[in-house]
Specification:
heterodimer; A: alpha/beta; 2-enoyl-CoA Hydratase, Chain A, domain 1; eight-stranded mixed beta sheet; 12 helices; 9 strands; 43% helix; globular; B: alpha/beta; 2 domains; seven-stranded mixed beta sheet; two-stranded antiparallel ribbon
Chain lengths: 261, 286
């Protein structure tokens, strides 16, 4: 088994399938929707409507891009508030039309910039969490690469959270953690181990429900397998009359502590 | 040892000069230098003015002192005061850090929750503690706040929350992150029940707390000069490699950008909160 920091490097590898690769390979009839209706369109989050098999779904994906040019255009997958607001708009629309929402999460974190702060990065993430917690349609989130803190969680308050085998999910980057705690970003590998950020860790903490094997990653067999898993899972969730209260309970039971004597 | 140096100035200030060691008469009255006007202000004067300098600078305040300042006399009843959590991930150094924080703050954790009356109006109240790991949110903070919102729904009470936080507590890893989702769910249920939630953001309110329950209130107030933001200013500067605009992330800047309802100085908070409670009250004060 590889070390946690090796997983971090794998999760960041720019040859890994990105959000758009999943959209292109898992769905048909994808129509992209742009803009948050307040300020602008954020290329770091791609959203739209597509079909999974026969059924319409709303798809939201963080997109890092593969080439240097694409990666720059996509801001390396670090969303601005308008990205989260676009996502929220499309989620609410999915609710209106009774479509499930499927999210692909891949970001080092919400963008740390002046404009992002001026336009309320924290507020945008908070609003997504608030609305996702009672969205009346099934939500499945798949962490396909990096699940970077609140910026990732804003699309991962879901009925099911799945992680790719080499994806990571963390409250802070290992470099950030090492630099704050030990004033030494070179200790990132150590921090990565302490943070318990691998898919296996997330599953044992009850935060991820399923780990998706990376066998044949990016090949048709790989996408075919995920398409089948998604279809089966959506069917189960759509039949569940207590969907929203179960979503509440899913997060409610995590990290509770206890009353001491 | 370093611990003592760390504790001394803060506790002296926070206790209004009433430290364990009696102040020497001939040493004169202890003073505190204001980082804004750079004047030496006698502690007794600061203490009498809720730790606000005559120039208007708001010093940090311990959670219990805020409660004392806000709640009607003898009305505060703490809830879940002994809620605890060990070191769930076995994070190196976390246990020691918690113990230091407990000594520094005199609290078990980074938030105090309970019920109280303000100007006669009953409410649920949570106040975060700056001297406990800068109000960072781990499992216990998330759980206590969630439980308070659930209690408020069951008893049809408004919630008033004072936030101060460096963000999610990294020593609890994903369990801290997930508290953002958990608390947001509880706030939403409270909101859907038609109940009022007022947040007062104090210096600093950042990271995962800003991006969850702090920014989810019906009414968002802040203390003058409080830093309110998602990313830390230094991180923003490093990421963008540009000088930050004047007053970046200060409450006044955040108000100007449309993310706060009002800035309320400490001396007026009880009056304003009581007024807001009365404007939403179905019954009168009790």
């Amino acid at each position: 088994m590889s070390m946690p920091y090796d997983r971090v490097k794998l999760a960041r590898d720019n040859k890994r399938p990105t959000g758009l690769d999943y959209i292109r390979n898992l769905f048909t009839d994808f129509v992209e929707m742009h803009g948050d209706r307040y300020y602008g369109d954020d290329p770091a989050i791609v959203g739209g409507i597509a079909r999974l098999g026969e059924n319409p779904v709303t798809v939201l994906a963080m997109e890092k891009g593969h080439t240097a040019k694409e990666r720059t255009r996509r801001n390396f997958g670090a969303p601005h508030p308008e990205g989260y607001r676009k996502a929220l708009r499309l989620m609410k629309q999915a609710e209106k039309f009774g479509r499930p929402v499927i999210c692909f999460v891949d970001t080092s974190g919400a963008y740390c910039g002046v404009g992002a702060e001026e336009r309320g990065q924290g507020c945008a993430i908070a609003q997504n969490l608030l609305e996702l917690s009672t969205l009346c349609v099934p939500v499945i989130s798949i962490i396909i690469g990096e699940g970077g803190s609140g910026g990732a969680l804003a699309l991962a308050l879901a009925d099911r959270v799945w992680m790719l085998q080499n994806a990571v999910y963390s409250v802070i980057s290992p470099e950030g953690c090492a630099s704050i705690l030990w004033k030494d970003s070179a200790k990132a590998a150590e921090a990565a181990s302490s943070l318990k950020l691998t898919a296996e860790d997330a599953k044992s903490l009850g935060i991820a429900d399923k780990i998706l094997s990376e066998k044949e990653l990016g090949k048709q067999e790989f996408y075919c397998r995920i398409r089948m898993l998604l279809a089966r899972q959506l069917q189960e969730l759509e039949e569940d009359a207590e969907l929203v209260s179960k979503r509440y309970d899913r997060f409610r039971k995590l990290g509770t502590g206890e009353e001491s004597q | 040892m370093a611990l003592i140096n760390f504790l001394k100035p803060k506790n002296q200030l926070e206790e209004g000069g009433r430290t364990a060691a009696p102040v020497q008469q001939d040493a004169g009255e202890p003073e505190k230098k204001c980082p804004n006007c750079h004047k030496e202000i006698p502690l007794s004067r600061l203490w009498a003015n809720h730790l606000v300098c005559p120039c208007g600078y708001h010093f940090r305040m311990k959670a219990r002192q805020r409660i004392q300042m806000l709640a009607d006399k003898d009305s505060f009843q703490e809830r879940d005061g002994s809620w605890k959590r060990g070191n769930p991930l076995g994070f190196p150094g976390y246990q020691e850090k918690m113990e230091t924080a407990q000594v520094a703050s005199g609290e078990e954790e980074a938030v105090i929750c309970g019920t109280a009356r303000l100007g006669g109006y009953p409410c649920c109240l949570f106040v975060m503690e700056p001297y406990f790991m800068m109000g960072s949110m781990g499992s216990v903070v998330g759980e206590k706040i969630t439980r308070l919102f659930e209690y408020a729904v069951d008893h049809q009470l408004p919630v008033i929350g004072f936030t101060v936080s460096g963000g999610a507590r990294m020593q609890e890893g994903l369990l801290s992150l997930i508290q953002m989702a958990k608390t947001s769910g509880a706030v939403k249920r409270h909101s859907d029940a038609g109940l009022l939630y007022i947040a007062v953001l104090t210096d600093p309110t950042t990271g995962g707390v800003t991006a969850s329950f702090a920014m989810e209130a019906d009414i968002l107030l802040a203390e003058p000069g409080a830093t309110v933001g998602f990313a830390g200013a230094r991180v923003v500067e490093q990421t963008t490699q540009k000088a930050l605009p004047k007053g970046f992330q200060k409450a006044e800047f955040v108000l100007e950008h449309g993310f706060l309802d009002a800035i309320v100085s400490r001396g007026s908070q009880k009056k304003v909160l009581t007024q807001l409670l009365s404007l939403h009250a179905k019954g009168g004060p009790i």
